[in-house]
Each structure stands twice: as C-alpha cells, then as structure tokens.
Amino acid sequence: MSVSPVVSEVSSLSDDEIRSKLKEFGYNPPPIQDDITRKILRKKLIRFIDPSITFEEKVWNDEDSNDDETKVTSTRLRRRNESPRSPVPVENHPGRQSGLTRLIAILSVVTLIPLLLYVWYFV
C-alpha cells in the first residue's frame, strides 16, 4: 500500500505550517501542544486538501482490557460518509408513554374537565 503524496507532504510540515495551512482553509486550529492534537490537525488538513482520502480507524479489543500493556488493536476501513456505528432501534416499553403521548394525554384531560363541568352544571 503506497502513501499518498498529500499525506507525505503534510507529515513533513512543522506545527506552525500545519496551523497556517489550516487557517488558509478557514479553520481556526487550537495550539498544538501534544502528539494527539498534531495527529488530529494533520488529518483535518489532509481532508481539506483531498476529501477523498480516508483513514483507518483503530478499534480496541475488549478481551484484553485488563492488561494495559498489551492492548490489541484491530483496524477497519470506513467509508467517508459511513456512520461509525449502525443506528440502534429505539424500543417502546409497554406501560411507558413517550413525552409527546404524555403531553397529549395531559392536555386532553385538562380541556375535558372544564367541558364536563360546564355540561354537568348547565345541562
């Protein structure tokens, strides 16, 4: 797998050069104080320069969560427009009302009581 020329170019930039190039794209970057910020800003700059470039997402393996020194990672490619996780369906629990259903029920009772009192008193 070959490295894109854009990735090579951005990887060789200094922190000040990364920040100035991001400003050229209209992004106001934070100060680069550690490797994590530097890596994030490099990825952001690469995406500004060439939006078609995608990155591998590292996923921690939960089986080895007790051993901090031997974290195992697996990588998976993700498309640019793909959401990180599939949406989880919301289940309706029997006996529970959603906020809108509860509001409609309360408003129905509030408007029904005066009507019943009016009918009972005047009819």
Structure description:
By secondary structure, the protein is mainly alpha-helical. The protein has a domain at 1-65 and 72-80: Transcription Termination Factor Rho, Rna-binding Domain, Chain A, Domain 1, CATH 1.10.720. Helices cover 46% and strands 8% of the residues. The protein contains four helices and two strands; from the N terminus they run αααββα. It has helices at 5-11, 15-24, 35-49, 99-122, and strands at residues 56-60, 73-77. The protein has a two-stranded antiparallel ribbon with strand order 1-2. α1 (5-11) packs antiparallel against α3 and α2 (15-24) runs parallel beside α3. The longest helix is centred in the C-terminal third of the chain and has 24 residues, at 99-122. The radius of gyration is 28 Å and the shape is rod-shaped. The model has no long low-confidence stretch (mean pLDDT 75). Residues 7-52 form the LEM domain. InterPro entries: LEM/LEM-like_dom_sf, LEM_dom. This is LEM domain-containing protein. Keywords: Membrane, Transmembrane, Transmembrane helix. It holds the Pfam family LEM.
